[in-house]
Amino acid sequence: ILKDSIRIGTKEKSTFRDGWDISWHHLKCYCEFETLEELEGWEFLRWKDQIKISELIEQSIEESEEQLARKKYTNQLWQLKDQLIDINSKILREMVEANGIEVHKATPERITHKAADGMLYGFC
C-alpha cells in the first residue's frame, strides 16, 4: 500500500503470538462498513480523505456549522502535523507531557497528533 494512501486496518487474532495483529487493506478492497462512525479514528484523517471515504460508502457529509468547524479544525490540525513531522518524537513527547497530556505508550504518530492538537487549542 503506497504511502499516503487511505488504508483500513482490521484487528485479527495473531497466528504468531498471543494477542492481535493489524491487517492493512486498500480502501477500495475493504469496504465492509456502512457508516464513517464504524471506522475507529476516521475523524483523524485529512478532510479530503474523509470525503473520499464518505463518497465510497455513499454517506454524504452535511455542510452544517458543526461539519464546517470540523473541516476547519482537521485542515489546521494536519497543517501543524505536517510541520511537526521532522521533529524528534522524544522532544514532542516531552513537550506534550510537560503540558499535562499523558502519552505513556503512544506511537510517534499519536504523539505528533497530541502535540498538534495541543498547539491548536493552546495547551502546548
Mean of pLDDT: 83
Based on secondary structure, the structural category is alpha+beta
Q: What series of H and E elements makes up the topology?
A: EEHHHH
Low-confidence stretches: none
Structure summary, number of beta strands: 2
Number of helices in the DSSP assignment: 4
From the spread of the alpha carbons, the general shape counts as globular
Strand order of the largest sheet: 1-2
Radius of gyration: 16 Å
User: What percentage of amino acids are in beta strands?
Assistant: 5-15%
Largest sheet: 2 strands, antiparallel
What is the terminal-to-terminal distance? 34 Å
Architecture blueprint of SSEs:
Elements lengths: L6 E7 L6 E7 L20 H10 L8 H20 L4 H10 L9 H14 L3
